[in-house]
């Protein structure tokens, strides 16, 4: 029997669980406090629970279903974990510390079906969605790590690990709510970002379901020809359709949208594409996040510093904010979009 993962359980669901073991409702609150305030994942260490309840929990529930298979720390402090699921699959989570932030890069799926040509995760194909518990356990595990390290807490979360979060929308939305809740991980809503490759029908569904969280769209190409060659989804929903939906999302949610834009030498990082991107972003309630290509596809190269500077110079003439992502953890392949594991399913 697969044990039920209770990190994502509501208080009512926990009360029903403890009731099924013949225990009073207040035990549910105690378990919840252990999990979220003490960040405990071992029922045996929940010392104010009666032994019978601990045994019942151990037999049928879990809040730590993942095994750490590997852990790498970069010279810049970026830390990557490879987790193994109960059914023998591998996926990755990254902690990116800066002076004032502890950001976690969360995975939403094992592998990804979208087939983007620059992305290492795409080479795995799609294996399955992560469950709500598996998504939350990444935050739980990393929160415990950060607390042990320096008493701090995870301040930001981005769904830029493996997978397309809007194709696991229910679990990702519920995970965001629990990540934000004061009884959960207490991460501010505007510090939780979901990044999508542009699954058009899901963008408005997301906006209706979770309008207060941040949304980023991976644009990556400034015209249909280029974007289709990098992201097969563009053949289904072209840039025009995507932008119309983006505008509708902005109207619906009142949020500023982020466009992620990957910089690839001679492809997406040319003066012409900078001008196209400037036209796209102008007069939209958006900002641009430039991501220089990380090692992913041997046939693609990152642009030189001069080429990036020229690209930024053209964009700087626009009426929108432009940020450039600093490479983090390059020595451990920890950057977003590089999270394809060398491990293979064992069974
Ligand atoms: N599937 C979602 C979220 C995960 S990918 C999406 O595509 O938005 C997270 C980000 O990493 C995306 O913006 C993607 O364009 C970027 N990315 C993927 N591979 C990359 C690479 N090799 N170098 C730089 N960025 C990459
Ligand atoms: Fe999937 Fe995002 Fe990678 Fe594209 S960039 S293959 S959508 S994880």
Detailed description of the structure:
The protein has 347 residues and is α/β, with parallel strands linked by helices. The protein folds into 2 domains: 4-62, DNA polymerase, domain 1 (Orthogonal Bundle); 67-332, Alpha-Beta Barrel (TIM Barrel). Helix content is 35%, strand content 20%. It has helices spanning 11-20, 26-36, 51-60, 132-150, 169-180, 200-209, 224-230, 233-236, 239-253, 271-281, 305-315; strands at 4-5, 61-62, 67-73, 79-84, 90-97, 102-105, 109-111, 126-129, 156-159, 192-196, 214-218, 257-263, 286-292, 321-324. A 10-stranded mixed beta sheet has the order 3-4-5-6-9-10-11-12-13-14, with helices on one face. The protein has a two-stranded parallel sheet with strand order 1-2. Strands 7-8 form a two-stranded antiparallel ribbon. Helix 1 crosses helix 2, helix 4 runs parallel beside helix 5 and helix 10 packs parallel to helix 11 (305-315). The radius of gyration is 21 Å and the shape is elongated. The relative contact order is 0.12. The chain binds S-adenosyl-L-homocysteine and iron/sulfur cluster. The site of iron/sulfur cluster (SF4) has 11 residues, from loops.
């Amino acid at each position: 029997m697969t044990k039920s993962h209770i990190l994502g359980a509501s208080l009512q669901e926990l009360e029903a669980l403890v009731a099924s073991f013949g225990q009073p409702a207040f035990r549910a609150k105690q378990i919840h406090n252990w999990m979220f305030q003490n960040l405990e994942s071992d029922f045996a260490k929940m010392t104010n629970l009666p032994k019978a309840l601990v045994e019942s929990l151990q037999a049928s529930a879990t809040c730590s279903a993942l095994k750490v298979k590997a852990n790498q720390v970069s010279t810049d402090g970026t830390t990557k974990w490879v987790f193994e699921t109960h059914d023998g699959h591998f996926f990755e989570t990254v902690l990116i510390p800066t002076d004032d932030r502890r950001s976690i890069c969360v995975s939403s799926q094992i592998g990804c079906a979208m087939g983007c040509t620059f992305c290492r995760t795409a080479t795995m194909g799609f294996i399955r969605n992560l469950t709500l518990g598996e998504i939350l356990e990444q935050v739980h595990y990393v929160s415990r790590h950060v607390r042990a390290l320096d008493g701090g807490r995870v301040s930001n979360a981005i769904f830029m690990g493996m997978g397309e979060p809007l194709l696991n929308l229910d679990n990702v939305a519920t995970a965001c709510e629990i990540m934000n809740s004061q009884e959960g991980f207490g991460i501010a809503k505007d510090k939780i970002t979901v990044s999508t490759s542009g699954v058009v029908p899901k963008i408005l569904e997301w906006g209706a379901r979770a309008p207060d969280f941040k949304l980023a769209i991976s644009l990556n190409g400034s015209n249909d020809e280029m974007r289709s060659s990098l992201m097969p989804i563009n053949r289904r929903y072209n840039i025009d359709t995507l932008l119309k939906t983006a505008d509708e999302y902005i109207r619906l949610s009142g949020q500023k949208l982020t466009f992620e834009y990957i910089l690839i030498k001679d492809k997406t990082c040319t003066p012409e594409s900078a001008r196209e991107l400037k036209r796209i972003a102008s007069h939209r309630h958006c900002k641009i996040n430039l991501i220089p290509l990380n090692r992913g596809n041997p046939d693609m190269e990152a642009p030189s510093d001069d080429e990036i500077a020229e690209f930024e110079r053209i964009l700087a003439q626009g009426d929108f904010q432009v940020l450039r992502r600093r490479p983090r953890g390059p020595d451990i392949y920890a950057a977003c979009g590089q999270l394809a594991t060398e491990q293979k399913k064992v069974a």
